[in-house]
Amino acid sequence: MAAGLLLLALSSCAIAFSLRLRSLTSTVVAVYLLAFAQIVGLSELLSLGRAVGESGYLIGELAVTAIAVLVWSRTRYLPPRPHFPRGIREHPLVALLLVVVTAAVAYQAFIALATPPTNWDSLTYHLPRAAQWVQHGGLGYVDAAPTQRINVFPPNAEIAIAYTLALARGDWLVAAPQLLAELILLVTIFGTARRLGFARSSAAFAALLFATFSNIALESVTSQNDLVVASFVAAAAMFIIGREPREQALAGLAIGLALGTKLTAVFALAPIAVLAVLVLRRRALLTAGWSLAAFAAFGAFGYVANLERTGNPFAPHQERFEAHPSLGGTISTTLRVFYRFFDLPGFATVYLVMVVGLVAVLVTAMILQGSRRPAWRVKDALLFALPVLSPLWIPLVALAARNLFSAVHVPVNAAHSTATRFRYGVNGMADEDISYFGPLGPALLLPFAALPAVNWLRGRRDGVQVLLGATLFLFIVELAVVYKYNAWIGRFVTLPSALCAPLLAVAYKRRALAGGAVIIGVLSLALAHAFNVNKPAGLEAAPIWSLPRSATVSISSFVGPRMASSVSDALQGRGRIGAVMGPEDPSYMLYGSDFRRTVVYLPRRDPFAEAERRGLTTILFGDVPKPSSRLASTSRWHFVRLGYWLLATKGSTPPLRETATASVSTASP
Questions:
Q1: Tell me: the pLDDT tens digits for 71-102?
Q2: Contact yes or no for 430/527 (Cβ under 8 A)
Q3: In the list 156, 188, 626, 643, which could disulfide-bond 261, CB 3.0-4.6 Å?
Q4: pLDDT tens sequence across 616-641
Q5: Residues 102-147: pLDDT tens digits?
Q6: Are 522 and 223 in contact (CB under 8 A)?
Q7: What are the φ/ψ torsions at residue 618 (nearest 5 degrees)?
């Protein structure tokens, strides 16, 4: 594993250094993009010979490294050294944020590497998809997949997961792509803010503050793909704004990778295209050409596979989530998504204590500042109070929004625009699937996204900043046109939030506002991790790192801990099994903790005939119609019920442990 990662890093650095980029920020982002592109490209090529696996990756990386080092040796260019400003004492807020975010990232790395995956989407399709590719030695459609999501969505994030599964021979690295994407997002936010003209301290403030947003921190320890796609789009924007000719190829590469990662990247195409025309003028055509080439090489695989299998390059219609466009439905969904910005993840358990404590902080700060010269003005006190008291005023504003919705008769649960029921109220649960950005979302992110447009009306016109801020609002409207409202739609907003995050640098000019933002950002980051329902830290439940693997599966799925333990025990020692699973079954748990069990998905229609054709003697039935009891008396299959799942075994397979069976019916051979 170490050899593969080392070769990947070496080859990507060699190629990036050969580009002779002027800034260290650009070089770091370039290394990331080139490494990801290398993983995707090698996976596609190796799939032609069914050679996706550790040995295939190592051979491919050796070849790429040899060529990359040879090219670099002609220039031997090294990027600029990092610049550490001497005036760090003049920026205690940035220093505090740096310390807190560094500690948080260290904790996130521990959680990501030392605990098993628990996210629902990951267990049902992100991870099974990658696992199937590794076991079959190549990318492609998975036959008899329990859910079409395993096949139809753009695959780049799962390709990276497959790479980690192959090299690590286990799943302890599957969250690494998301965690790394978060770090790259911080770099791109810093780089974009600098290119917009902000000072280093302001740019660092914007990047580090973004790391305190609840959903950013929560998603960084999962094997989802929202941070990954956001990192690509943010990188493209940074390179375009930089105007450097050599960076435009990298901007195109980032766009191609983004389109191959998640369909929501399509919604960012219009703002990115306008940004390119606005900044690059005629040279935007060159960036478009690089984007098309990168998409063909590193983004088109999933679309081509869909077109070949279904006749539709995009995901087949999903009636549950696909909106039926109408003006009323679009307005309703847009308003509901904005309403969900009223978000306090992790605050629910300790809300009263937090509010009292924050009021005490405000009073103390005002007393201390009042004794200094120059003392705070009323404006400074209000700016400090805006974020600090946000946990207090957010529920009040949410209540006012509810009354406004009712007054203007917003249809909040119309069937044609609703997939899951919308409920009023402020979310207090720290869950990566439903959390937004914490109190700083409505307190800072939304206002500073709108601020450039306000400044434009006041005569201070900066088209690039206006476009970056408007992207957040435009993106949400685009979502509302295509998707019905659902409880999980907020994750998609991560992408436009990353694009407008550099505008948070404006807040640092007002130290009172920045100080309040740091206090609430640090607090919301701590509470998100402390009360993360999918990765508990031990305050409300046993810590995730102390739980057996069978217990972690039950955290976000319908499979209880006793049932998960029964399934694990029943499959012990079985190296190859068939599986007939439902679309919401966490089928990834079937592969085992050491990833040595081969799982063959079987069709629901006549799975026994298919199992015999493939030489399988074990079939696990999930949340699907089970075989009839008559079959038990007329076949050589033995049935064992494991909760609401059913295990079928045949012939001389190892006997089941008695502790694994909830109820048993057997047929004589």
A1: 999 989 999 888 776 667 789 999 999 999 99
A2: yes
A3: 156
A4: 999 999 999 988 767 766 678 889 99
A5: 999 999 999 999 999 999 999 999 999 999 999 999 999 999 999 9
A6: no
A7: -135, 130
Distance CA 532, CA 510 (A): 32
Q: Write down the pTM of the prediction.
A: 0.94
Residues 6+ apart with CB under 8 A from 339: 398, 401, 405, 424
Pairing of strands 637-642, 663-665: antiparallel
Measured CA to CA, the distance from residue 152 to residue 310 in angstroms comes to 9
**Peptide linkage before 374 cis (omega within 30 of 0):** yes
β-bridge partners, 601: 579
Burial (0-12, 13-18, 19+ Cβ within 10 Å), 98: middle
| Of residues 399, 396, 433, the one with CA closest to residue 214 | 433
Which residues lie closer than 8 Å to 325 by C-beta, 6 or more apart?
481
Per-domain boundaries in the chain:
1-83, 327-530, 551-665
Give residue 187's Cα distance to chain centre: 17
Closest CA to 117 of 222, 226, 224: 222
CB 225 within 8 A of CB 157: yes
Count other C-beta atoms under 10 Å from residue 75's C-beta. Answer: 11
Q: For domain 551-665, give the fold.
A: D-Maltodextrin-Binding Protein; domain 2 (3.40.190)
Q: Which of 373, 2, 337, 5 is nearest to 177 (CA)?
A: 5
